[in-house]
Design goal:
The protein is an alpha+beta fold and 215 residues long. It is built from two helices and nine strands, in the order ααβββββββββ. The chain has helices spanning 2-29, 49-58; strands at residues 95-98, 102-106, 111-119, 125-132, 141-146, 151-153, 158-167, 175-185, 193-203. Keywords: Signal.
Length: 215
């Protein structure tokens, strides 16, 4: 009886010891409590890229190429002006003329020049002469254009336009630069656009104003 009791106590002690050790080992693997990260959060502004680049240059491993690009916000001068979209005509005008500049040398006789206008678009165009854009040339001569009415020009064809200048008795200006303005339209009563032809006039009957005594 004594041996059996001693054996029973020994087994009971061993069982309690192993159970206690197992519980302690489980508790050792699990944290006692959840601890919040005590480190202070580092923001992107506080990271100095110069120090990082210096540290990378000191490393012995040169096989890896590190490249840093710092993008800065564009300033007011660097910003490109974004223009609104421009309207595109459905039927654009392609007009040519020659000579490109009309030159008049006026003395006593009338001078008439012929201007050829060519329609290079795929549709017929109506042309109408609107007169001179600058009236300065009228001080030394009177101007007239033919035909005075609207004329029709099919695509690929050319038509003449006559400009006649009649000099005055005296001209207060020695020369003038003006423009002959012509309206173009795909329809008869609907103007599509204007174009101007430069005119240079030299008045040989110009007399400089006499200067008064003492001036």
């Amino acid at each position: 009886m004594k041996i059996e009791s001693i054996l029973f106590l020994f087994l009971t002690t061993m069982f309690n010891t192993s159970q206690y050790e197992t519980t302690q080992s489980i508790r050792a693997k699990l944290p006692n409590m959840i601890i919040v990260n005590p480190r202070v959060k580092i923001e992107g502004r506080k990271v100095f890229l110069e120090k990082i680049a210096d540290n990378l240059e000191e490393e012995e491993d040169h096989d890896i190429d590190f490249h840093f690009e710092i993008e800065t916000a564009p300033t007011a001068t660097q910003k490109e002006l974004i223009l609104p979209p421009q309207p595109v005509p459905k039927f654009p005008l392609h007009i040519a003329w020659w000579p490109t500049t009309l030159c008049f040398e006026l003395d006593e006789d009338q001078v008439t020049h012929k201007l050829w206008i060519s329609n290079r678009t795929k549709r017929p165009i109506f042309f109408h002469c609107c007169g001179l854009w600058n009236d300065t040339a009228r001080y030394g001569a009177s101007w007239c254009c033919f035909p005075r009415t609207r004329f029709w020009l099919p695509p690929g064809l050319s038509a003449p336009l006559y400009i006649r200048a009649t000099p005055r008795e005296l001209s207060p200006i020695p020369y003038a630069v003006t423009f002959l303005q012509i309206a173009a339209a795909h329809l008869r009563d609907n103007v599509t656009g204007y174009f101007s032809i430069p005119i240079k006039a030299k008045f040989l009957k110009y007399i400089a104003p006499s200067m008064l005594e003492g001036e």
